[in-house]
Write a structure and sequence with these properties.
homodimer, about 650 residues, 8-stranded parallel β-barrel, elongated, NADP (chains A, B), allosteric enzyme (chains A, B)
Chain lengths: ~650, ~650
């Protein structure tokens, strides 16, 4: 709790996420065939169950607190941070609630929407804070219903700051966090996991430490599942508090809130808000170095590590909750030094799983969105269920339209000037475009000395496995095979392989080689001649922006291109080349030329006309080499094509 | 192929609606995940479509006619013949209808039940004959409804022989085959494919050849889909007939009925019934050798081959229909000499697919019934649909009881005396039983000089792939690991592999090693200790007759043990080890000890008590080695077990 809200009412909360898993999924076996939906047993448990299991397994965990950003740009950055910090394997994250900031609205910076993004797009188990004072029952219920609809399953119930000095308790109103707990349980039964705040030194407004403990007990007995504490500076503060809680009959998990000191000013502000006293021994260290941010942060990390070690060593603490202040470095450093940061979290599936409960049975996706998973989730958010692990009716998958939300998200990732530096202030012909693609693959600076770190078709940096294909990709991009997606063939690597592995241990993963690119009609004409030689081996789909579609695939049948075989399980095939969704992807892939690239330039400018020309005349091609045990033949196909052209 | 596809019109396609035969048929892919229900495009096409496709592809075919047997024993033999002759790849078989023999009843020898067996248990496309004279509309409709219910989709509409000499046409009754054709079309719309009979020499009762052609045209115009002709002796008879048909506007397929002469008496009888004249040149050959069956058959084969060649060479004939007289040798010989017999028909799945329309999406089965597929089909015949390629709810698959029909089928396969010779007139202890199992595996004669060619758990002869494991199986059976099912591990053999291949060309098939056996509790105790060492690698289920169940498998999850990867397809996993159905199989497997074996002996006899003891005290064990790319470890598991016991 380090932001302004918490001061009064709460501390903050806790959360955790298993790096992208979570949300449940048990019954999927009933409507699943070759797939084992119960990939990760955690996924269909409640947060409180996950905590219990981790504790029983003696497996320490951590969670991360964030506050909603103030601007759309900051929101985009925060989402990237969720992805990066999610990779370390938090049990959950939580998002604070600021009544003044319209926290339940649909603005991209609201608490509700940030929590929604964390759950649905980043796949993080998430707790949404909610305060209750000065609000009507209807408001609160409305927020909770919305949270439930969005797939949120955990609430941190707080009182919040009374508006104005003259605040008085309202009869039948929400005067304390316990009223909110009771309201949630009465209106939503056991749907939400509920967290409440604990104050190791007692709430500053409480009559006494003992009185505050009694309030805490009331909150727990009203239905809270676990407690996250306000920050504190000495481990013995927490350990005493915990014993005192237990002594009066509080048996639920109590998670210490850890605040790694990151700077002089943020500490001062926090202390002021939370009305805490900084111990003299800490002040003594900090005052002399107050203008040296790095030194303070190093000290803060040191201090946090040593406090966390003491807490963990006590045997009473199983999880640690971090007040990140939306920053990455200090918390990540503490976690790494504690050995809690999962360097290589096992992926349950080769793509990031969404944490929305209704998506918990999802285990098949088209390969096309591999580099734009958030777009895929966004465009399929209206799917009410996943009876076959994907959609109910493959002939009518009902993809949502490409709308502003997602384009906003991508657009704001890099400012226009950055993009122009990467993709060219001025294009001189199609070859300038070839060069951009080539630089993205190689990582070499372009002719103006700028590295191309993103492309319109890629949310994420180049996948590690793409490096396996780097040399060939460079060669073909240089000649106008503009690749946007690819995977090497894999013939039975262990599921624990650091690059291509996924799924439970002891299994084997497989892939068919895949290559997707834009190319001119001249290249496509030659390619089609060449493909005749590979008719039985290579499946292709070739389509232009108008929808002219050339394929040798059996009518509408998906081709499985990634699958895994695991001990005691059915076969999992999480990625397919699906002819139906390819036509939806085609619209998106072509639109990105214009939306993301052409529009960087003036209308009627030569640069814009070059991109427009490509958009209007190039084809989008995908190729699958079905003979996964043999050497990938797709490079030979491309070589043959160029040979034919010469 | 270039198709202009509108993305929005994902209207999938090809609905080759089988008129009712399976409502939602095309959509099978919709409720399929890793499986390609459209394995064999033929399977959800109508017979008339199959004919058309074969003709378009220039692919000659044949079909086989049988009559219902007179006794239950003969029925069992005929079913075995269906399996053997089905292996040659007929496009369909047909079963004749004998009004005097109660053809629509539930007797195991009725036309209806024989056709039912051919479709459902032997997986053969089947035409049921039906005659109409002297029958009420209600009777006929009842027969047709029953046929539809049983999964029959094709009817040969015939008039039948009037009862008695004094037959007169009834007003509004069924006087001619055309009335039956009209009735079927009016009552069942386009559900059935309808075949009618053609007479190359004219029907013997017709006023003239021309008048008969007119009747035939009426039948076709009333809704018949194709014509099968009465037998004839000279190719020119058929070719003239066909031209005459075409001349009056009959355009549907006309299939010549071929009768290989197999003996003097059968020829005489047939000629008498059909009122045909045997050409003098044939009589001249046959009369002198009329007592030499082999010589007549050789001549008949010769004659049929030469006539068939002439017909095929004419370019007008695409399929040949054989009157088998329920015999195998002559027809098979003719077909082999014509090159129409498929020596190695490609298996669409590793097990025999049922031809019932509602089972056409079935593509997953438990491995347990691998040697008793007819029992599995029988016990699951009530399943109304296969939403996941098997059953709707894996936790409650609702297997039918083991009932008389199936036990009858197996029991009557070999008479009691035969079984006693194979399995022992008198058992002296459990070791005598070990010996029976061992002899079955090795093929060596037992101590009394008899080969053990079948076992209670095996419908079919030992599978070819079992030979790959023969030496190890012999060794373990000798020591009391009484194996009833096994498969070797396979790591990516071509789908065209003659032993383990299945599915479309160009694919790869895989298996996990599997071993299933009965063993004493002493062996099982040691085995369980050994299995601890293999905990992560080997999944096991161990159960006794009382249902005491020991397993390390994840709760209720099936383990895929056979799967295939094919060009342009989703993954197919046709065989699983399923913990739920294993408990149903357990009941069947234990019951077979008593029903098939113990009951051969007198009550209270020592032999019977030995089998009863095994039934009461042994365990049924199955083991899966999940590490399919490594050498099968199950033999090591068994060796370790015996070592521990010593």
């Amino acid at each position: 709790m380090v932001n302004e809200t918490q001061q009064s009412c709460s501390a903050s909360s806790s959360s955790r996420s298993d790096g992208g898993s979570s949300s449940g999924s048990e019954s999927s076996k009933d409507n699943s065939r070759c797939s084992t939906p119960v990939l990760d047993a955690d996924r269909h448990e409640r947060l409180r169950e996950k905590m219990r299991r981790r504790q029983e397994a003696g497996d320490k965990w951590f969670s991360l607190e964030f506050f909603p950003p103030r601007t759309a740009n900051a929101a985009v950055n925060l989402i990237s941070r969720f992805d990066r910090m999610g990779a370390g394997g938090p049990l959950f994250i939580d998002v604070t609630w600021h009544p003044a900031g319209d926290p339940g609205s649909d603005k991209e910076t609201s608490s509700m929407i940030i929590a929604n993004t964390a759950v649905n797009y980043c796949g993080l188990e998430t707790i949404l804070h909610m305060t209750c004072c000065n609000q009507t029952k209807d408001d609160i219920t409305g927020h909770l219903q919305k949270a439930k609809r969005l797939g949120l399953k955990n609430i941190m119930a707080l009182r919040g700051d009374p508006a104005g000095e003259e605040w008085e308790e309202e009869v039948d109103g929400f005067n304390h966090a316990v009223d909110l707990v009771k309201h949630i349980r009465s209106e939503f039964d056991d749907y939400f996991d509920i967290c409440v705040a604990g104050y190791p030194k007692g709430h500053p407004e409480a009559e006494s430490y003992e009185a505050d403990l009694k309030h805490l007990k009331e909150k727990v007995f009203a239905g809270a599942d676990f407690i996250i504490t306000q920050l504190f500076f000495r481990p013995e503060t927490f350990l005493k508090f915990m014993k005192d809680c237990q002594a009066i009959g509080i048996t639920c998990p109590i998670i210490p809130g850890i605040f790694p000191i990151q700077g002089y000013h943020s500490l001062r502000q926090l202390v002021k808000l939370s009305k805490l006293e900084v111990p003299q021994e800490i002040k003594d260290v900090i005052e002399p170095i107050k203008d040296n941010d790095a030194a303070i942060r190093n000290y803060g990390v040191e201090l946090a590590v040593s406090m966390c070690r003491e807490l963990l060593d006590s045997g009473m603490v199983h999880g640690l909750h971090f007040y990140t202040l939306n920053r990455e470095v200090a918390t990540t450093e503490v976690l790494k030094r504690l050995g809690l940061w999962k360097e290589d979290p096992r992926r349950p599936l080769p793509w990031a799983v969404s944490a929305h409960p209704k998506r918990r049975v999802e285990d098949v996706r088209p390969i096309f969105w591999a580099s734009r998973p958030k777009s895929y989730i966004y465009r399929t958010q209206e799917w009410d269920d996943f009876p076959n692990g994907r959609w109910g009716n493959s002939s009518s998958p009902a993809f949502g339209e490409l709308k502003d939300y997602y384009l906003f998200y991508l657009k704001s990732k890099s400012p226009r000037e950055e993009l122009l530096k990467m993709w060219g202030e001025e294009l001189t012909g199609e070859e300038s475009v070839f060069e951009v693609f080539t630089c993205y693959i190689t990582g070499e600076p372009n002719r103006n000395g700028h590295r191309v770190t993103c492309m319109p078709w890629n949310d994420d940096p180049l996948a590690t496995e793409t490096n396996l294909l780097k040399d060939q990709l460079e060669k073909v991009n240089r000649r106008g095979i503009l690749t946007i997606n690819s995977q090497p063939n894999i013939n039975g690597k262990p599921s624990t392989d650091p690059i291509v592995g996924w799924g439970p241990s002891g299994g084997y993963v497989f892939q068919k080689a895949y290559l997707e690119f834009f190319a001119s009609s001249e290249i496509v004409t030659a390619l089609l001649k060449v493909l005749k030689k590979y008719e039985l081996r290579v499946n292709y789909h070739i389509v232009n922006v108008k929808g002219q579609n050339i394929t040798n695939a059996p009518d509408l049948q998906p081709n499985a291109v990634t699958w895994g075989i695991f001990p005691g399980r059915e076969i999992i095939q999480p990625t397919v080349v699906d002819p139906v969704s390819f036509l939806y992807w085609k619209d998106e892939a072509f639109a990105l030329w214009i939306e993301q690239w052409a529009k960087l330039y003036e209308e009627e400018s030569p640069s814009r006309m070059i991109i427009q020309y490509i958009h209007d005349n190039y084809y989008l091609v995908n190729l699958v080499d079905n003979d996964f045990p043999l050497e990938n033949c797709l490079w030979q196909v491309v070589d043959d094509t160029f040979e034919l052209l010469n």
